[in-house]
């Protein structure tokens, strides 16, 4: 099972998160077979949205998405309800992969990467989107800058990938310096700052193999054994798609009556594949007729409303 752990250092304003994804990446790759580097990048994006979602105080979704003119045209990684992940990577057909495959900017080319918080409707909160500057070559480094700029929290983020016989395994380790407690003395603040510097230096010594393969308890002990650290219980993460007939109906209805009728005429049957899970939704002539009736219901409802 894929898991996320939080941890915190005793009496210090420093917290961390550890995520390992394997089954999620298997599920994401079941419908679209990704090259290892692409699966690894998707894993880093999914690990990030899982970590951000873990800190949310409200219900909703966190999404990271990109658009560019490089080999990776479009991507989306999403965490809903704190634990439900899904993601998709759209590559160019010609498979002209960048020379430096570890670098997010090489994959995107000219493009944009954004992180979006989408609170559920009942929270009454507005969505928020922040752009992640692509000034650094690795996604982890870009995100460190992003958290420092957008949340004023110093952050260190390390990722490691491991290729198993059953696909990629991605592990992420995050350390974050929280604001000092308002009642802290100057000496305590100085001590926290010194410890932060030490902890991030220790974290930077982690090798890719250690991060990719060690269990979280062993890793934390190996890196930070001189600093008492409390590890929270594992939170289970899973690949879950939110597609449904209802949502597909709504998407098709966006086309409008004429285009829908033309599409049915041209193809005999309309098929819509979910880009995340590969579920296929088929609409034969009677199914399209049912959608047409819904258009009429909707038009009638709108006709009943008073005109302003
Ligand atoms: Zn789906």
Account of the protein in words:
The protein is α+β, with helices and mostly antiparallel strands. It folds into 2 domains: 2-239, 3-Layer(bab) Sandwich (Hsp33 domain), CATH 3.55.30; 245-304, Alpha-Beta Complex (CBS domain Like). Helices cover 39% and strands 31% of the residues. The protein has 10 helices and 13 strands. The chain has helices at residues 23-31, 36-54, 104-108, 139-151, 186-203, 208-213, 216-224, 245-253, 257-267, 285-304, and strands spanning 2-9, 14-21, 60-68, 72-80, 84-91, 111-119, 128-132, 154-164, 167-177, 229-231, 235-239, 270-273, 280-283. Strands 1, 2, 3, 4, 5, 6, 7, 8, 9, 10 and 11 form an 11-stranded mixed sheet that branches. Strands 12-13 form a two-stranded antiparallel sheet. Strand 1 (2-9) and strand 2 form a beta hairpin. Helix 1 packs across helix 2 (36-54) and helix 9 packs antiparallel against helix 10. It starts with a strand and ends with a helix. It binds zinc ion (ZN).
How would you summarize the topology of this molecule?
Blueprint: E1 2-9, E2 14-21, H1 23-31, H2 36-54, E3 60-68, E4 72-80, E5 84-91, H3 104-108, E6 111-119, E7 128-132, H4 139-151, E8 154-164, E9 167-177, H5 186-203, H6 208-213, H7 216-224, E10 229-231, E11 235-239, H8 245-253, H9 257-267, E12 270-273, E13 280-283, H10 285-304
Parallel strand pairs: 5-11
Antiparallel strand pairs: 1-2, 1-10, 1-11, 2-9, 3-4, 3-6, 4-5, 6-7, 8-9, 12-13
Helix pairs in contact: 1-2, 9-10
Zinc ion is lined by residues 241, 243, 274, 276-277, 279.
Brief write-up:
This protein is α+β, with helices and mostly antiparallel strands and 308 residues long. It has helices at 23-31, 36-54, 104-108, 139-151, 186-203, 208-213, 216-224, 245-253, 257-267, 285-304, and strands at 2-9, 14-21, 60-68, 72-80, 84-91, 111-119, 128-132, 154-164, 167-177, 229-231, 235-239, 270-273, 280-283.
